[in-house]
Design a protein that fits this description.
13 helices, six-stranded parallel beta sheet, Rossmann fold, single chain
Length: 345
């Protein structure tokens, strides 16, 4: 089959870009002919020679408007090709299949943002038109599906919830045998209770809340390790690790992963952490809360309730890994092959 994958940029940055490469490799392994349609490819990306690339030129347009002009150009471009299956990871409307990793209305509502600037209006337009025009939408969580139905008034019949795929070769229980080695690498003392927080957009992900939680005297014997920040903190129990490339090591080294996000359409750090056998605490505005089925696996807390998060950290005292059978079930459901079967049917 002739497969086309659409995304406005191709670079080693972000979950969608990683997913595009995974999709490309999956289709190639199945013997399909793959074409990538994009506007930008960074220098560090080296594609297989058998992958065809169509570059849509957008450099002359203002940056914030490029997604719109990308759509206009796709409307003229796609009819000139004969593809058997076209999947977009961008909010485009010329193709039949669309990945929906978020909604802009959900993002605005979660932040209580009522003023809508031109950029917001463009994002809302792209959402609405793409959701209306395409035949099949793959929402990253039930939370996002509900937003598409309720806020954009889209027929639920064409929306399927498909969680983002998990790299099971990297995130798995087998790595726990190296826990002591990873703790030494990151300077983590196993005689203490240790937590991690992963973010490069701290305000939306809830770091301010956690700083207050770990600054209280009752929690100063517990340690928070932050992946994604070089900021120095006056609290001696809060540690900035900077950008961490091997997150599976850090998940394995700590006792729990915390994600008090204001808005997170899915939150792969939750599925990755669970796959490594590490307990999770997530806010009720995190889509991945749907896979936290009981308190043996993790805890779902109100995103803005500082007292609830304070008590959860204060009362946490477990170093056991979560149930192995559940981890195996989750990884089977989220591995790339199972993910693709839900989309490519």
């Amino acid at each position: 089959m002739k497969i086309a994958l659409i995304h406005i940029r191709l670079m080693n940055k972000g979950g969608l870009e990683t997913r595009l490469i995974n999709y490309m490799n999956y289709f190639l392994d199945k013997g399909h002919e793959v074409t990538i349609i994009t506007s930008k490819i960074s220098g560090e990306i080296i594609l297989p020679t058998k992958v065809k690339v169509v570059v849509v030129q957008l450099s002359k347009y203002p940056k914030f408007s490029r997604p719109l002009f990308f759509n206009y150009k796709l409307e003229k471009l796609l009819p000139s090709y004969t593809f058997d299956y076209v999947l977009s990871l961008e909010r485009t409307w010329t193709q039949d299949h669309l990945i929906a990793p978020n909604t802009h209305i959900g993002y605005l509502k979660a932040q209580h943002k009522f003023f809508r600037d031109p950029s917001d209006l463009l994002q809302l337009y792209l959402d609405k038109k793409s959701f209306q025009q395409v035949k099949h939408i793959y929402a990253c969580s039930q939370m996002v599906k509900d937003e598409i139905i309720n806020d954009y008034h889209i027929d639920s019949a064409k929306i399927k919830v498909v969680y983002p795929p998990l790299n099971t070769a990297k995130f798995n229980l087998a790595i726990r045998k190296n826990r002591a080695l990873y703790q030494k690498k990151y300077g983590i003392d196993d005689t203490q209770l240790n937590f991690c927080f992963v973010s490069t957009s701290h305000k939306r992900k809830g770091l301010d809340l956690l700083i207050e939680v770990f600054s209280r005297p009752e929690n100063q014997d517990k340690h928070l390790y932050i992946a994604g920040s070089h900021t120095s903190f006056k609290q001696t129990n809060i540690h900035a690790l900077g950008f961490v490339t091997e997150m599976h090591e850090l998940y394995c080294a700590v006792d729990a992963t915390l994600h008090p996000a204001i808005y997170e359409p899915f939150g792969q750090i939750i599925s990755e952490s669970i796959a490594c056998g590490t307990y999770v605490m997530a806010s009720d505005n995190v889509g991945a809360k749907e896979i936290i089925l009981n308190q043996e696996i993790g805890l779902v807390l109100p995103n803005a309730n500082k007292e609830a998060w304070f008590q959860a950290v204060k009362q946490f005292n477990s170093k056991k890994i979560i149930d192995e059978s559940f981890v195996n079930q989750l990884t089977n459901e989220l591995q790339l092959a199972a993910h693709m079967q839900k989309i490519f049917n």
